[in-house]
């Protein structure tokens, strides 16, 4: 099994010219196939840069940059991640910058997380700073952010007032 999929090039022939708009584009959609897989037995030390969609099940010690990255529940990354989309089930020790981040229940992210669109499942562990700028706060909700304990207390108080 190859670690990285080799992109096939189609050589144009007479009557078979390919325009720039018809060339294959990198995959970015969650439904598109995964182009590269790092098996759970593998350990990579160094920087990784990729295009398209990649899934890591193993260990990476170094920075990662690319487009659509899936970290499985066995994946461990020690380094910074800069991608368009991160779907995390594994462990990250480092900073994450991504347009879209989904932290699933098994994920652990330790570091600074910057994302325009952040989704966190119950059970996920996030330690460090979180910067998410998807929406601007409304005038009604311009208070400082609350901890989960404060948010739960406020919700309980609001519910008891309704009774």
What would you note in describing this structure?
- This protein is mostly beta strands and 163 residues long.
- The chain has a domain at 26-127.
- Helices cover 9% and strands 38% of the residues.
- It contains 1 helix and 14 strands, in the order ββββββββββββββα.
- The strands form 2 sheets. Strands 1, 3, 4, 6, 8, 10, 12 and 14 form an 8-stranded parallel beta sheet that branches. The chain has a 6-stranded parallel beta sheet with strand order 2-5-7-9-11-13, with no helix packed on it.
- The radius of gyration is 20 Å and the shape is globular.
- 21% of the residues are buried.
- Residues 135-151 have a biased composition (Polar residues).
Topology:
Layout: E1 36-38, E2 43-45, E3 48-49, E4 53-56, E5 59-61, E6 64-71, E7 76-78, E8 81-88, E9 91-93, E10 96-103, E11 108-110, E12 113-120, E13 125-127, E14 130-132, H1 148-162
Parallel strand pairs: 1-4, 2-5, 3-6, 4-6, 5-7, 6-8, 7-9, 8-10, 9-11, 10-12, 11-13, 12-14
Pfam families: Bactofilin
Family: Belongs to the bactofilin family.
InterPro entries: BacA/B
Number of strands: 14
Whole-angstrom Rg: 20 Å
Which sheet architecture does the biggest sheet show? 8 strands, parallel
End-to-end Cα distance: 62 Å
| Class by alpha and beta content | mainly beta
InterPro entries: BacA/B
Organism: Candidatus Electrothrix aestuarii
Region (Disordered): 124-163
Family: Belongs to the bactofilin family.
Fill in the keyword field for this structure:
Polymer-forming cytoskeletal protein; 38% strand; eight-stranded parallel sheet; 163 residues; 1 helix; BacA/B; six-stranded parallel sheet; mainly beta
């Amino acid at each position: 099994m190859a670690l990285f999929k080799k992109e096939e090039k189609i050589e144009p022939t007479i009557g078979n010219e390919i325009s720039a708009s018809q060339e294959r584009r990198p995959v970015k959609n969650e439904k598109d196939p995964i182009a590269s897989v790092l098996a759970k037995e593998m350990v990579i030390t160094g920087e990784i840069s990729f295009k398209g969609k990649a899934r890591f099940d193993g260990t990476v010690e170094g920075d990662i940059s690319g487009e659509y990255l899936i970290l499985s529940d066995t994946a461990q990354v020690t380094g910074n991640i800069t991608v368009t989309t991160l779907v995390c089930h594994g462990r990250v020790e480092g900073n994450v910058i991504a347009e879209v981040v989904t932290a699933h229940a098994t994920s652990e992210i330790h570091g600074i997380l910057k994302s325009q669109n952040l989704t966190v499942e119950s059970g996920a562990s996030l330690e460090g700073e979180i910067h998410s700028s998807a929406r601007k706060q409304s005038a009604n909700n311009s208070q400082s952010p609350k901890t989960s304990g404060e948010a739960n207390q406020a919700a309980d108080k609001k519910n008891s007032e309704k009774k």
